[in-house]
Amino acid sequence: RHCTDIICCVIFIVVILGYIALGVVAWVHGDPRKVIYPTDSYGQFCGQRDTLNENKTILFYFNILKCASPVVLINLQCPTTQLCVSKCPDRFATYIDVQASYRYRPDQWNYFRQFCKPGFNNPRKSVAQVLRDEDCPSMIIPSRPFLKRCFPDFSTKNGVLTVANQTTFKDGRGKTRNVTDLREAANGINNVLDARSVGMKIFEDYAISWYWILIGLFIAMMLSLLFLVLLRFTAGVLFWIFIFGVIGIIGYGIWHCYWEYDHLKGIPGSDLTVYDIGFQTDFKVYLQLRQTWLAFMIILCGVEVIIMLMLIFLRNRIRIAIALLKEGSRAIGYIMSTLFYPIVTFLLIAICISYWAVTAVFLATSGEPVYKVMANQTLCKYANLTCDPETFNTTNVTKLCPGAQCTFAFYGGESLYHKYIFIFQLANAFVFLWLVNFAIALGQCTLAGAFASYYWAYRKPADIPLWPLFSSFGRAIRYHTGSLAFGALILAIVQLIRVILEYLDHKLKGTQNSFTRFLLCCLKCCFWCLEKFLKFINRNAYIMIAIYGKNFCTSAKEAFFLLMRNVVRVAVLDKVTDFLLFLGKILVAGGVGVLAFFFFTQRIPVFAQEVPMLNYYWVPLLTVIIGSYLVAHGFFSVYAMCVDTLFLCFCEDLERNDGSTAKPYFMSASLHRILGKKKLSPKKA
Known about the structure:
Blueprint: H1 6-29, H2 33-36, E1 58-61, H3 71-75, E2 82-85, E3 93-94, H4 95-100, H5 106-112, H6 127-133, E4 139-140, E5 143-146, E6 149-152, E7 154-157, E8 160-163, E9 168-170, E10 176-178, H7 179-263, H8 274-277, H9 290-313, H10 315-334, H11 341-364, E11 368-374, H12 397-400, E12 405-412, H13 416-419, H14 421-455, H15 468-507, H16 514-548, H17 552-565, H18 567-600, H19 618-656, H20 669-674
Antiparallel strand pairs: 1-2, 3-4, 5-6, 7-8, 9-10, 11-12
Helix pairs in contact: 1-11, 1-14, 1-15, 7-9, 7-10, 7-18, 7-19, 10-18, 10-19, 11-14, 14-15, 14-16, 14-19, 15-16, 16-17, 16-19, 18-19
GO molecular function, one term: antiporter activity
Catalytic activity: choline(out) + n H(+)(in) = choline(in) + n H(+)(out)
Family: Belongs to the CTL (choline transporter-like) family.
């Protein structure tokens, strides 16, 4: 063994040090409070400790009617003064009425002025000047906090939209408005915050159901471990049970969909289509439609037919793959520690994701408050230009653009650091992809080295080295960090290009240029195929690195040509094995998913009282299903790596040895019989 791809190793270490430096710089300049707290028109945080706004946690809009402007969707800022308040208004009132009665009803003035600019207490100032300078809002309406912002307290009475049981209100400028105007204004902001609303409800569901989610994932882990233990002894029987189990689960799904479809027959509204009701945040609405269950049933029937056809045409190859899995299960039986290595990979990836996310947030919140002119007039030439709130009222902007305000827009700056924030974000994403791919490569090379030590042991298990997994991990880190980093770098570059293409596709989605859309679609398809191909090559290159200790390019070339010389065996054994393992993942995820469905829909009488009250029962259900699949994938990936390694070792064994006494095969007798050799030379005692 000797160190491989040293230059790439050095570059990799330098990049990691630079990544740490980038994180430190971002942490120095960034402020995550800019994401956590709402920000008023002065760039101050609502609810921030040790400030004047410590007890003012809610954002109040002076004139929420202006939030119906398209500016809200363009700049994500409502073109009106925004103030931090301790509570939302609970009554209708206008500044004109309050000013007229402040002498004999000072309590009304004292209540109203808490929604004025801090320090303003001059009820004698003319109404025109107050509204011009936006010292106070022209009106307040009963509101309640939503996502730490004051929104009108809407309710429905006899099918009519009301606010505090009123259908009209005074806007403080001499007009009587309908509350539907408030709804349109609130929708202007809600279009931006709807996703946050759903996110908050999902967060609440996680907060009260996390315990049961963990139980579901624990059950998935135990089922996966049980599957792996039983696979060593009853691979054939167990896999056929799993295959028919998947068929049975899908069959039950088809029957359940048909039952729901038939049960909804004749119920008013059930014959509506998904197109008729549009997008709904309450997904239970879709389950009341016959069309939804019909679509589910058709999809499940198609999946069932595909699985049945594959089983019919691949039955002989499946038997061969099962025999190879038995050999793999025997190898894992001797090296049981490999089952828990995916936990190491998971922890490394979790660290990478956490560091990337924190750095991205700090980079995004770097900079000082930037203020821009917000004007209702579309012809105002100063609109969206930067301004200084301290001197704004002394400029000519307010005269040329009546009603214009100098309001907080975003955080930024003019320094060299702030000019390259976008470049830093790209670098953050690129190094993140590189590190994640390196963690995966390290896991693959480590497992390959452990299983290769099993295969090339002449007398099994006597010649298997002590602690093969730890020895393989040490070799990968000590000698092959550069090679693993090289393979991860190539894959990270392709993945970054794919991310950029997805970003461009999102930005150009509304374009009418058909050629541009076609070209972008072709590029996305090509780079997707390239990424899949590189993953396949890298995986086998890491196996060759673990076996022979050569550099990445040499290992990749030798692995590729070795596989090409055995392409039929690759298709028959490797891919059928992947398919069978995928069926195992589906069975684990499907079984736990069905159990979770019955639990969260209160269909298990024993646990009916234990089920938490949820906004969306599908939130923990999908989490359990996806989490169970990932848990099963983590354990089954060890088997997949084992089979790939044994297969590559077998191909190499056939080419280097001939079964003679001088060059005996290293494969086991059972694997030798499975893959076509009639006679195995006796091994020395």
